[in-house]
Amino acid sequence: MMRFPFGSPSAPTAAPRRGAADHRVLYQAASWCLQYPDDEVLARAALLRAALDEQPSSDAVLALGRFVDHLAATDPDDLRHSYVDVFDLSRRQTLYLTYWTHGDTRRRGAALAAIKQRYRDAGFLVDTRGELTDYLPMVLEFAARVDPDGGRELLVEYRPCLELIRLALADQTSAYADVLTAVCATLPGPSPADRASALAMRGEAETVEQVGLDAGDPRLMPLFTVAEMAATAPMGGRR
User: What is the fold of 18-232?
Assistant: First the structure.
């Protein structure tokens, strides 16, 4: 079962630019909202609502507020079943950002290592608890608690992935679409209206097209051994 925070800074970080700092509360709230809704997460619904009420009104705050209200008003069992259905049983809405850029290829390992190095450079001591370093709630916590500027740059870098997740969640009419809408609204420029436009934002079609390759495609080489996969698999056994 996931707990938060994922990690802690080992050393003071530089003061963030004001624009990045403005979104720290929203990024932390979004990080919690995208985690499995266990009792600890649900107990924070009132705190999340109060924190958002203190923020200046914006499209991002309004969208995230809708989800927090949904979190507070919905039966916990229904929330948990929904989370598993949306995020654990399908990769169409996966929260692992490098999957959207590299699929299950060896090239993904380098992307994961690059993110991990950015955490280390900022002094973010990460307790992954079985999660990969590209897990969106972890990236959001990094932006909220450790390095707002660096975290925002990471979100901008993976903006096409965030938009693809948002669009996939919207297609599923999932309440979680509001969380991705909120995060995307903090980033420069308008969100794309469709998947083709989101893919075009990246400008690297060859990389993106690796997502969704047939299981027998030789480019889909395993990243981990069986034992490593068992240790790092998404939390399908949630209670």
Answer: TorD-like (1.10.3480)
DSSP 147: -
Q: Which two tokens stand for residue 18?
A: 């004001």
Rounded Cα distance, 89 and 235, in Å? 10
Asked if residue 206 lies in contact with residue 212, where contact means CB atoms within 8 angstroms, the answer is: no
Q: Express each pLDDT in 170-191 by its tens digit.
A: 999 999 999 999 999 999 988 8
Peptide bond into 5 cis (omega under 30): yes
| Residue 73 tokens, joined | 């008003």
Query: How far apart, in whole angstroms, are the C-alpha atoms of residue 219 and residue 209?
Result: 12
Please give the residue that has the higher pLDDT: either 91 or 216: 91
If you write DSSP's letter for every residue of 15-68 in order, what string do you get? Answer: PPPHHHHTTHHHHHHHHHHTS---HHHHTTHHHHHHHHHTSPP-HHHHHHHHHH
**CA 7 to CA 119: how far, in whole Å?**
10
Domain boundaries, the chain: 18-232
Rounded Cα distance between 27 and 207, Å, is 27
How much is the pTM?
0.77
Q: What is the pLDDT of residues 96-138, one digit of tens each?
A: 999 988 887 778 888 999 999 999 999 887 765 678 899 999 9
| Distance (Å, whole) CA 148 – CA 141 | 9
pLDDT score of 153 more than 90: yes
The H or E element spanning position 126 is strand 124-126
From CA 170, how far away is CA 172, in angstroms rounded? 5
